[in-house]
Amino acid sequence: MGIIGGGYMGKAHAVAYSAVGAVFNTRLRPRLEMVAASTRASADRYCAEFGFARAADDWAQLVRDPRVEAVVIAAPQATHRAAAELAFSLGKPVFCEKPLGASIEDARAMTASAAARKCINMVGFNYIRTPASQYARKLISDRVIGDVTWFRGEHTEDFLADADTPASWRTKGDSNGTMGDLAPHMINAALALIGPISSVMAQIETVHKSRGGEPVTNDDHAQMMCRFDSGAMGHMFFSRVGTGRKMGYAYEVTGTKGAIRFDQEDQNALWLYKAEGPEAERGFRKILTGPAHPDYAPFCQGPGHGTGYQDQIIIEARDFLEAIADDQNRWPTFADGLAVSQVVEAARTSNSAGVWTPVQGD
Amino acid sequence: MGIIGGGYMGKAHAVAYSAVGAVFNTRLRPRLEMVAASTRASADRYCAEFGFARAADDWAQLVRDPRVEAVVIAAPQATHRAAAELAFSLGKPVFCEKPLGASIEDARAMTASAAARKCINMVGFNYIRTPASQYARKLISDRVIGDVTWFRGEHTEDFLADADTPASWRTKGDSNGTMGDLAPHMINAALALIGPISSVMAQIETVHKSRGGEPVTNDDHAQMMCRFDSGAMGHMFFSRVGTGRKMGYAYEVTGTKGAIRFDQEDQNALWLYKAEGPEAERGFRKILTGPAHPDYAPFCQGPGHGTGYQDQIIIEARDFLEAIADDQNRWPTFADGLAVSQVVEAARTSNSAGVWTPVQGD
Amino acid sequence: MGIIGGGYMGKAHAVAYSAVGAVFNTRLRPRLEMVAASTRASADRYCAEFGFARAADDWAQLVRDPRVEAVVIAAPQATHRAAAELAFSLGKPVFCEKPLGASIEDARAMTASAAARKCINMVGFNYIRTPASQYARKLISDRVIGDVTWFRGEHTEDFLADADTPASWRTKGDSNGTMGDLAPHMINAALALIGPISSVMAQIETVHKSRGGEPVTNDDHAQMMCRFDSGAMGHMFFSRVGTGRKMGYAYEVTGTKGAIRFDQEDQNALWLYKAEGPEAERGFRKILTGPAHPDYAPFCQGPGHGTGYQDQIIIEARDFLEAIADDQNRWPTFADGLAVSQVVEAARTSNSAGVWTPVQGD
Amino acid sequence: MGIIGGGYMGKAHAVAYSAVGAVFNTRLRPRLEMVAASTRASADRYCAEFGFARAADDWAQLVRDPRVEAVVIAAPQATHRAAAELAFSLGKPVFCEKPLGASIEDARAMTASAAARKCINMVGFNYIRTPASQYARKLISDRVIGDVTWFRGEHTEDFLADADTPASWRTKGDSNGTMGDLAPHMINAALALIGPISSVMAQIETVHKSRGGEPVTNDDHAQMMCRFDSGAMGHMFFSRVGTGRKMGYAYEVTGTKGAIRFDQEDQNALWLYKAEGPEAERGFRKILTGPAHPDYAPFCQGPGHGTGYQDQIIIEARDFLEAIADDQNRWPTFADGLAVSQVVEAARTSNSAGVWTPVQGD
Lengths: 362, 362, 362, 362
Ligand SMILES: NC(=O)C1=CN([C@@H]2O[C@H](COP(=O)(O)OP(=O)(O)OC[C@H]3O[C@@H](n4cnc5c(N)ncnc54)[C@H](O)[C@@H]3O)[C@@H](O)[C@H]2O)C=CC1
Ligand SMILES: NC(=O)C1=CN([C@@H]2O[C@H](COP(=O)(O)OP(=O)(O)OC[C@H]3O[C@@H](n4cnc5c(N)ncnc54)[C@H](O)[C@@H]3O)[C@@H](O)[C@H]2O)C=CC1
Ligand SMILES: NC(=O)C1=CN([C@@H]2O[C@H](COP(=O)(O)OP(=O)(O)OC[C@H]3O[C@@H](n4cnc5c(N)ncnc54)[C@H](O)[C@@H]3O)[C@@H](O)[C@H]2O)C=CC1
Ligand SMILES: NC(=O)C1=CN([C@@H]2O[C@H](COP(=O)(O)OP(=O)(O)OC[C@H]3O[C@@H](n4cnc5c(N)ncnc54)[C@H](O)[C@@H]3O)[C@@H](O)[C@H]2O)C=CC1
What we know:
The structure is a homotetramer.
Chain A: E1 2-4, H1 8-24, E2 34-36, H2 40-50, E3 54-56, H3 59-64, E4 71-73, H4 77-89, E5 94-97, H5 104-117, E6 121-124, H6 131-141, E7 148-156, H7 178-181, H8 183-193, E8 197-205, E9 210-211, E10 214-215, E11 221-228, E12 233-239, E13 248-255, E14 258-263, E15 269-274, E16 284-288, H9 309-326, H10 334-353, E17 357-358
Parallel strand pairs in A: 1-2, 1-4, 2-3, 4-5, 5-6, 7-12
Antiparallel strand pairs in A: 7-13, 8-11, 8-17, 9-10, 11-12, 13-14, 14-15, 15-16
Helix pairs in contact in A: 1-9, 4-5, 5-10, 8-10
The site of one 1,4-dihydronicotinamide adenine dinucleotide has 22 residues of chain B, from helix 1 and helix 4.
């Protein structure tokens, strides 16, 4: 493996590829071959700390290195497209962190490039991979809660809630705003759980318009109402100023025969209500994930013992490796990442125009 | 007291006026003088069961009765306006259940009539009177959570979630739909907690379009995004098909320095987050209501011992009696009920037009 | 009705007898005839505030008054026995607050007196009357959770957690200590839910041995292990220094086929786990009380709308009135109160002796 | 590393030693050198699956192998002592899963052997290593909740709740019963959080006395009251028949100035109550673990993102490696494991004798 970036996600992927073989008994056993970072010093540090064989201060060097057989892009959005395109041109599989590039054009180009070169490609929507959310998907598609009538999702955190936090790269550029950074996770969840979105009506805004005297040029929070192709009605909210919320990736799905609730802040529990049995015994049940749920057993034989953030990345790594081994893409591919970007794009248009806006396929 | 209606709410008010004196040591000590219902038989039954002195099968007879000094309207929306107008013409105070009349015209006329006759008037938004929600109001107005940036409210129940429930009066007529029946409670909460709403963007729909072969002519669920005068952004959702939700009157208020969460299904708890103190010690705290919170102590000296639905109606009765004793209106008056109806009206317009719609004052 | 005491519980009963007729359509319709308190001034104040016809500064005067047809004792433990015995000697029904008298001898004498005179008698264990706890009883006796193997109960509050709270009558005398004051509620619950207790092993202690220089002569917290006649194992804990707990009347019942959890701090929810159905769907379900649960519907037609502390006292009042109307005792009688006192007694003996101690019947 | 056992815990340790270097940037970078199992076939399978270099079907071969520099014992209790003693005789550091050996004699011998040979030794109490429980320890030792007055702990699971589960090695032998298998984790927590236990009063029993016709010879659940050296009172409960509980490692600590609650089923939350500030604002706060809490940051930079079961084992591996690197034991050593075994022993004695039993140091 070659991993571009050794920050928050670069490290997470390095750990994941160290552990994934032992956890999932994968056919391919990855080696941490090379890490790239923006400086030589940091690349060397990551190399030593995470246990890579070699370091590069240039992502292109990493992508081109013959011993790097697969590339993980865990660097800022601006690098995604060029790195992916180069890798595809060399026929190498690429895993790219969300969102897919810095713009919808990037997402389109990256998806097209992957398709043209028929390379394995995957985008990093990790939260949907918890055993609980995978199981929620299954319950919904098995129609345990009947027809879905309502979906409410949010991805809320509070890392910029404090007005005194100074401006930084995070407060500049669309792709670093809430719609660029947080929304994709929950939009992806909506698409995975309920299906395609036909139109949206959004409101996007900057709460703290300047920080430390510097203007903030991207959005702090945003909401959108949406209509799914299935007819279901929905709403999503995204915020990086959601005081008190730390990992507010949460959703509620209401169906004609039941309902599901989930909150990533208690990621090992899924709440299920079934409209069956005597009225007096009905209620939301708190299901603790365990070996009976998707991808849990390899982590622990005991139910309720729990998986965590890092484990999502390990599941992701397993899927990427298996896709490579099978030479067969696994969900979510770049095309799925692009579908998310299309919803984001429609939301931006809707916000400007103040009207319901259809989501454009490509 | 004279109470029009002896059903769900008629009984609740009858119990409330039986108990309110002992609970709150009110200056006025009400007598259950007369109850009116749509039939003689039911009126007589209510009279005996709830302990009224006399019964009437005609609301006008009750309103006109000289020994009825104050009128509570707890009959369907269609009776609200005429009963209130008659009472005001006789100079009698009126408490009217929400919503104010069957249409915005009714609400306007009733408010005008109350003002013209300078009669005491009050509208029945009981949920906002729990100790927890009163305390939430206080926390927000004391700026404990800073500037409010986001409000999310819902009023969700599931009494019509089952598609097999047959059509009835509930499934006919705007004022019995979700926007007419449930939305007013949460809109009132939004106005009380955050302040006036300047514009809304709504989506209103009927999920089960026919029941037992009969068409359903009002809405099952609805959502709206809103902008408050203060600049805060908001969202509300209302549903009578919210499978699993029994009393889903719930809200979240995010501010720059804290946040509040409340769910009526656990009405004795208020969740408060304050962005202060060491990061490691921060978290939403679950405050159990007790004597330190508004209107709790008269019910019980012990914190955490809890109040219930009926107690809200007793608090409401206290306010109505005190308003009469002082000849000074107490919140929420008909004008406040009208303000709610104006938001509902704007939502209906927005839903039809598909655009953001300003809320029109009168 | 005549009510002895107008404090915490005296008021609660006054409110309850004002409301009970309207709520439950009881055959007997009580009148608030007379209230007694320790001083003339306070008795007069209670009389006016709660709406009694007359006041007495002597409980014996109240008991003897010919228009007082039933007596509620809501004064301190020291008055219970004499007041009850006098009432029984006059053939009057008596409702007595828990615990039954100031000592086990009192409890025995009161029970014997009630039996000898064949008078209606009831003891005030209100918490077990919530719809949730009544339903828990039913679930257990219907064997929904199979054979009970384990019971854990607690009654914890924190009104004396602060070491700086000065000494008072509460900190003196066995019957005002935690074993006298709080333990009876939960012991009664244990007996009601699981059945008779055969033996106990207890530990009773005073945490803050002096307050403001004055010695504390009763217990702050206590625990006991117990064995039920059924063979089930159990544990109870009682505390008035349980920092953070406001109404910690909570229990967990584990059975061979399921489990139940309840906490009075969220009194409208009962948690039920059933070991049936696919493993992946199992979990504790949070059942919100509603019209499908015992004694809920008369308070409100809507599920999840909730009852509160005062409503328990109303249910209790209904039972007392119905017992009188039928001339047939209803649970829990003085004999049930005595059974609780016997467990308390065994716990005290066990604590002193440091060994398992059988619970002595009388 | 050489790991004895490739089952539940053997795998967990294999994964942990694969990941720990990248997560914690440890000085020592372990290699998965050899795995031993009870058969050649299983050892070979583990070797391939987890990525070991070599396999052994004999633990002694593994311990003696010169390239195995440190030994992890993750095989059944019966192997612990002999394996540890052999390793110490060769001067190798040993990590041993809980409980320490199959009997208190084993625990004593192992501890003595470690001391005699001055070898690094550690025992596998992983649950206390979550960021939440480490933080709870810190809060208590920083006296944030004042003096501890009450501790309640439980370790409850339901893997043998079903009476139809057949007898197996789990249902035979003291060290596989609840006191042997589950109790040590929570006793260790009690010692870590509150301090030494001076005496206990226990009740230990077998709920399902036979399974599939075969007698069950060890305990299904057990409870004990205890007195800590500090004077605090406590209670613990352990069960493998705790229907509905999956990972019920839970505790409550009450102090004079606050309280703490924790439940491993929601391992990323710690509940803290502080008796300070206005009464109206007090409540248990739900603190989500994050980078501000011990050992969280290396797993994820985002608070609330969560750690899981496997991460505890990684933290444990870090401590073992650091102990080796420093040639300085880290908590918990074999001596700490022995202290736990001494409490278990006192509990067994108490259960037989029916009296309070002092915990014997060695
Ligand atoms: N899936 C998830 O939960 C999360 C995903 N992300 C995504 O991961 C990506 C990386 O974000 P973070 O790890 O938070 O950033 P970070 O700032 O922590 O780390 C970025 C890394 O990229 C390296 N880098 C920057 N420019 C480079 C270049 N030109 N060539 C080579 N290396 C370069 C830096 O040296 C650094 O090591 C982003 O696309 C972000 O959206 C970020 C956080 C969470
Ligand atoms: N605040 C709250 O939580 C709630 C408020 N409501 C409101 O209370 C009002 C009554 O609703 P419910 O009690 O649910 O209805 P219901 O159907 O239970 O009772 C209606 C009562 O009105 C009487 N009535 C009907 N027409 C009458 C007439 N022409 N003259 C005299 N009496 C007449 C009926 O006999 C019956 O006793 C409505 O405005 C409703 O929106 C209803 C439920 C909850
Ligand atoms: N079921 C429950 O939840 C509760 C039950 N209780 C029980 O209720 C009883 C009363 O307790 P509280 O109401 O808390 O006490 P309190 O101190 O609030 O009120 C006691 C009342 O008794 C009156 N009183 C005292 N001595 C009297 C006498 N010799 N003659 C006539 N009146 C006299 C006082 O004037 C006062 O009105 C106790 O037995 C207590 O154990 C108390 C609180 C809660
Ligand atoms: N800390 C924790 O959370 C847990 C700790 N444990 C402890 O871990 C230890 C192992 O338990 P599990 O992994 O559950 O057992 P397991 O039955 O899943 O695996 C036992 C392993 O030991 C191997 N083994 C057995 N006898 C052997 C021998 N003579 N030589 C070499 N290998 C041998 C087996 O081949 C197997 O791989 C026990 O001491 C247990 O108490 C177990 C589960 C959880």
